[in-house]
């Protein structure tokens, strides 16, 4: 069996940036299990996995346009410090939840100068070249239910708890 649309694949992966720093990895954990062909992975990685078999190893470089997108400068804003009323110390690297056009988003403080604070609401990996090392560990057919939902259920999946009456898919499972 090889990876194709409507297959569920399990992969071990390590994600590094151009400097070789590890950003994310499944090492020491269960492999990541995902439904192929449903944009559960970044596009540039998913397309390279098509046709791969268990045991295959691959290194993939994903550019922002096939990863988390380019940085959107509209999401970088300089605000008056007084808008952060009640917070005594504001430092670069701090994260806040903010209401935006796209709902609640995490924004990161990227600059503090005088009485202004610059925040960035881009995905942390926007504009970053992604260096993936991947090994395929398992492939199976998806169930009808998984295909209906567009994601994996069960062990290692990024779906929801089926003991809950309502289907709430709160976790974004793009890695
Ligand atoms: Zn589901």
Describe this structure in words.
By secondary structure, the protein is mostly beta strands. It has two domains: 7-68 and 127-149, Chitinase A, domain 3 (Roll), CATH 3.10.50.40; 73-120, Thrombin, subunit H, CATH 2.40.10. It is built from two helices and nine strands; from the N terminus they run E-E-E-H-E-E-E-E-E-E-H. The protein has helices spanning 43-49, 144-149, and strands spanning 7-16, 22-25, 32-35, 57-62, 76-80, 95-100, 103-113, 116-120, 130-141. Strands 1, 2, 3, 4 and 9 form a five-stranded antiparallel sheet that branches. Strands 5-8-7-6 form a four-stranded antiparallel sheet, with no helix packed on it. A hairpin with a 5-residue loop joins strand 1 and strand 2. The longest helix has 7 residues, at 43-49. The chain is elongated, with a radius of gyration of 19 Å. The protein starts with 6 loop residues before the first strand and ends in a 26-residue tail after the last helix. Mean pLDDT is 88; it is low at 163-175. Bound molecules: zinc ion. Residues 149, 151, 153, 159-160, 167 line the site of zinc ion.
Mean pLDDT: 88
Number of helices: 2
* Domains (count): 2
Q: From the coordinates shown, what is the CATH architecture of the largest domain?
A: Roll
**Gyration radius, in Å:** 19 Å
The small-molecule ligands in this entry are: zinc ion
For the sheet with most strands, the description reads: 5 strands, antiparallel
Percent of residues in helical segments?
A: under 10%
- Amino- and carboxy-terminal Cα gap: 24 Å
Element order: H for helix, E for strand: EEEHEEEEEEH
Number of strands: 9
Strand content: 35-45%
């Amino acid at each position: 069996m090889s990876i194709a649309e409507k297959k569920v694949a399990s992969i071990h992966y390590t994600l590094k940036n151009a400097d070789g720093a590890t950003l994310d990895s499944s090492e020491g954990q269960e492999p990541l299990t995902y439904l192929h062909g449903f944009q559960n992975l970044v596009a540039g990685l998913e397309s390279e996995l098509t046709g791969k078999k268990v045991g295959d190893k691959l290194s993939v470089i994903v550019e922002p346009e096939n990863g988390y997108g380019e940085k959107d400068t509209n999401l970088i804003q300089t605000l008056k410090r007084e808008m952060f009323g009640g917070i005594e110390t504001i430092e670069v690297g701090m994260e806040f939840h903010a209401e935006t056009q796209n709902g609640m988003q995490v924004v990161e403080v990227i600059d503090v100068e005088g009485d202004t604070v610059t925040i960035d609401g881009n995905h942390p990996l926007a504009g970053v070249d992604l260096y993936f090392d991947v090994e395929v560990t398992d492939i199976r057919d998806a169930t009808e239910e998984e295909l209906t939902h567009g994601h994996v259920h069960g062990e290692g999946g990024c779906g929801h708890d089926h003991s809950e009456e309502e289907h709430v898919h709160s976790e974004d499972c793009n890695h």
